[in-house]
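Reviewers of the previous submission asked for a worked example of the structure-prediction workflow described in the proposal, so we include one complete record here. The input consisted solely of the amino acid sequence. No template or homolog information was supplied to the procedure at any stage.
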Amino acid sequence: MAVPKIRWYVKAQLGVLLLPAGLCLFGEAVIRKGLQQWASLAAAQGGSGGAPQAGPWFWYGTLGLVLINAGVGLMIESGLLRGYPRQPKL
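From that input alone, the workflow returned the following structure tokens.
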């Protein structure tokens, strides 16, 4: 009887943790993409070579979207909005 409750609790909490982690990674990807565009624009206009390097924004964004979807899916699967599912009465 205690194992289903623990399994439900772990799924719900993992979903609650994965969603904001995914949002943070997705935001980081957006910032890195903006920096990359800014650096390429500055280089095209003949600016100084001191523009910051952006990094792998595509993979940050992809991993962020995967974590967002996994978090939402786990929260929906666990029924987090309704609370712990009750045992049906016989």
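The chain has two helices and no strands. We consider this example representative of the routine output the project will generate in years two and three.
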